């Protein structure tokens, strides 16, 4: 028997083109394709048009309450949104917006599901939110253990990748638009430039300085992303350029069409969703994340890479410019062999991380909590 469609409200802090928000966009597409109605409440951001294009109603609000009325007024506004959308359940992904959503649903009988995307949440806020949710999802085994240590069970459901969005293709005009020579070997780093990922980027820039000194003169780096550390990283890049006598590091800021940038790269440095998206584009991936260094993602270590979430939730070593430079140099020495692994890497993503499977599993959680709430309410 086919389950009836649901009306789901996604809750986010903002619509930046970052990992969590990109995951929610992919999941929303898959849920809508299955006949469900999905709406979204969040502060504004560059991903809003992408949500609206797929038929997701976007309600703009400020979950963190900066100049947007009292907490009671914000809760009342969110309750009105839920009534207007006829919401069956709310799916939260971050703590400020999740806590607000949980408060708003308390008097409406609408269940809240929370997905933990990492181990960076303030533990007190996360514990409060989990105490008000009907189900929790973790995107990796280390995150599941983190949530369990706080005192709550969660179901492991990996972030899914939209394989119709991420696939091998010409890299558009990325190189020419950014002034990168066609014969250059291009390394792409993509992440939010904050927290541990900004530290990783800082370390990578210093490794680029060392690699240039060692004679890798054709290597250039493209940094994609934004955040509070971007200005400091750009200053560091300028210092490196002065010493090298040429520009070898480029910044492209936030981007919403990541496939073009992955496909313009010879190698991608990243973690989490970036790693999976780049692997789906058949690109060699050096996994470095918030937690530390993992290494090259190859068929022989797929499961190990996944168990560490590509350096984001676990790692083999701390960030080190010398470690980064050494592994990049080794990758450059066997670049063609790494590229030849591309089709097998994509097949692994197709087999283990398709967004349709993720959507099916998430829908199972939705229907379970909605059914339980309906039974409790005697409906």
Description:
- The chain has 379 residues and is α/β, with parallel strands linked by helices.
- 47% of the residues lie in helices and 16% in strands.
- Helix 1 packs across helix 16 (355-376), helix 8 (195-213) runs parallel beside helix 9 and helix 8 packs across helix 13 (321-333).
How does the SSE layout of this entry go?
Layout: E1 7-11, H1 19-33, E2 37-42, H2 48-53, E3 57-60, H3 71-85, E4 89-92, H4 95-105, E5 112-116, H5 123-131, E6 135-138, H6 141-150, E7 155-156, H7 174-178, E8 185-190, H8 195-213, E9 219-224, H9 230-244, E10 249-253, H10 258-264, E11 267-270, H11 272-280, E12 285-288, E13 293-296, H12 302-307, H13 321-333, H14 335-340, H15 342-352, H16 355-376
Parallel strand pairs: 1-2, 1-4, 2-3, 4-5, 5-6, 6-7, 8-9, 8-11, 9-10, 11-12
Antiparallel strand pairs: 12-13
In short:
The protein is α/β, with parallel strands linked by helices.
The biggest beta sheet reads: 7 strands, parallel
**What portion of residues belong to β-strands?**
15-25%
DSSP summary, beta strand count: 13
Gap between N and C termini: 20 Å
Helix content class:
40-55%
Mean pLDDT metric: 94
SSE string, helix = H, strand = E?
EHEHEHEHEHEHEHEHEHEHEHEEHHHHH
pLDDT < 50 stretches: none
Shape: elongated
Radius of gyration, taken over Cα atoms and rounded to an integer in Å: 21 Å
Q: Given the structure, what is the number of helices?
A: 16
Q: Which structural category fits the helices and strands?
A: alpha/beta
């Amino acid at each position: 028997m086919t389950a009836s469609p649901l009306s789901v409200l996604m809750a986010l802090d903002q619509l930046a083109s970052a990992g969590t928000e990109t995951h929610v966009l992919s999941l929303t597409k898959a849920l809508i394709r299955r006949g469900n109605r999905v709406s979204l409440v969040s502060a504004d951001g560059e991903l809003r048009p992408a949500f609206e294009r797929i038929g997701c109603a976007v309600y703009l609000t400020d979950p963190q309450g900066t100049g947007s009325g009292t907490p009671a007024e914000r809760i009342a506004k969110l309750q009105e949104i839920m009534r207007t959308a006829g919401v069956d359940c709310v799916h939260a992904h971050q703590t400020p917006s999740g806590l607000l959503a949980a408060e708003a649903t308390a008097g409406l009988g609408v269940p809240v599901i929370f997905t933990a995307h990492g181990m960076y949440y303030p533990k007190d806020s996360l514990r409060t939110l989990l105490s008000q949710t009907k189900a929790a999802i973790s995107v990796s085994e280390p995150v599941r253990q983190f949530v369990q240590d706080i005192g709550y069970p969660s179901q492991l459901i990996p972030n899914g990748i939209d394989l119709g969005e991420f696939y091998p293709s010409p890299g558009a005009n990325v190189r020419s638009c950014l002034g990168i020579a066609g014969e250059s070997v291009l390394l792409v780093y993509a992440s939010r430039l904050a927290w541990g990922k900004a530290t990783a980027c800082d370390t990578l820039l210093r490794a680029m300085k060392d690699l240039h000194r060692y004679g890798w003169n054709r290597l250039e780096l493209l940094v994609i992303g934004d955040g509070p550390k971007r200005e400091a990283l750009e200053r560091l890049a300028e210092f490196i350029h002065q010493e090298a006598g040429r520009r070898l590091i480029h910044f492209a800021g936030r981007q919403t069409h990541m496939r073009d940038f992955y496909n313009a790269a010879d190698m991608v440095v990243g973690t989490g969703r970036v790693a999976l998206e780049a692997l789906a584009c058949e690109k060699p991936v050096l996994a470095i994340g918030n937690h530390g260094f993992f290494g090259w993602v190859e068929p022989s270590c797929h499961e190990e890479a996944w168990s560490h979430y590509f350096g984001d939730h676990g790692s083999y070593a701390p960030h080190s410019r010398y470690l980064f430079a050494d592994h990049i140099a080794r990758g450059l020495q066997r670049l063609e062999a790494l590229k030849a692994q591309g089709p097998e890497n994509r097949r692994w993503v197709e087999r283990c991380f398709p967004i349709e499977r993720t959507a099916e599993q998430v829908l199972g959680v939705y229907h379970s909590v909605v059914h339980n709430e309906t039974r409790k309410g005697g409906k």
